[in-house]
Amino acid sequence: MPQTVNAVVVKEKDGPAVLEQIIVPDPIAGEVVVDVLTCGVCQTDQHYQQGEVGDNFPYLLGHEATGRVSEIGEGVTNVKVGDTVILNWRAVCGECRACRKGEPKYCFDTHNAQQQMTLTDGTPLEAALGIGAFAEKTLVAAGQCTLIEDVPAESNAAVGLLGCGIMAGIGAAINTGEVKRGESVAVIGAGGVGTAAVLGAKLAGATTIIAVDLDERKLTKASELGATHTINSKESDAVESIRELTGGFGADLVIDAVGRPETYKQAFYARDLAGRVVLVGVPDPSHTLELPLADVFGRGGSLKSSWYGDCLPSRDFPMLVSHYRNGNLDLDAFVTERVSLDQVQEAFDTMNRGEVLRSVVELQSSTQN
């Protein structure tokens, strides 16, 4: 029987994120209903609110989530009722041209639930990144669920962040940037994604890890989580400072976790000859980039963008959870505050003031049937 639950919805561009009741349908073949346990407050959700992702309002927000499987549709075999899962927005199809080429991390036809959740008046909801987890329950494709085991309940808020931003940052370093032991890495932007990239560089064995930001609070946190050097770009020229810290040459890999033309140019010129640049910060669609083509040619190396950290959730989430359990990956440090479902709008404001790495919504099993 379809269920009525509380959820956070934005009904129009720049409208408030408000608590509404929504209808979650019974799962059909290949779908799963999940009781949401935790959900991180990510800037992507605010991009939906501001109309920067599309105009398919109303949106059901939330996507960095853990949950417990409560119902499964026909043919679902990867999870069972009662399993604890991390939700992801890359349920690969296995059939598109990227998957057929053995590059499922670039899957062009990722799966979401076929049915839509709705408002109580029947209005269809567009779920953020195909998840919509600022809700007591949500409906997703089975492939969007990655089983997690041997993690205590109090750690769900931390491991759930692997569902988006933390995976994006770690993957930008390890998967896209292919950090090698002993290399130098600079990360421009020390927010949640950038600090996760610092962690990824540390995990991969980089020995010089430079964090760049305008905010000393963020630089301090980056140092605590693995940065060997920090640069406040309000006080020092970022490119020259990175070169000074890398023997005058520039870093082997520079990750732009901001996504602005200014920061991308810093990343481009702060790398060594034949070095790599990875863009993981999501750019404003209106921004353009201008670089001398002779410099692009003459400096060599590679310029890459990183989609979701070029991850495969079924491979990367369990690996990173193992690192967390073994004490090699401090995901708890990213959980700055825990809030309730009706505090999402306030959490957006806190995020915009730069006061948190992540606010995490924690939900109870108070769903009304």
From TrEMBL:
Please name the Pfam families in this protein's record: ADH_N (PF08240), ADH_zinc_N (PF00107)
Q: Which SUPFAM superfamilies match?
A: GroES-like, NAD(P)-binding Rossmann-fold domains
Molecular function in Gene Ontology: mycothiol-dependent formaldehyde dehydrogenase activity; S-(hydroxymethyl)glutathione dehydrogenase [NAD(P)+] activity; zinc ion binding
Keywords from the named record: Metal-binding, NAD, Oxidoreductase, Zinc
Stated EC number for the protein is 1.1.1.306
PANTHER family the UniProt entry points to: ALCOHOL DEHYDROGENASE, ALCOHOL DEHYDROGENASE CLASS-3
What's the protein here called? S-(Hydroxymethyl)mycothiol dehydrogenase
Give the originating organism: Nesterenkonia sandarakina
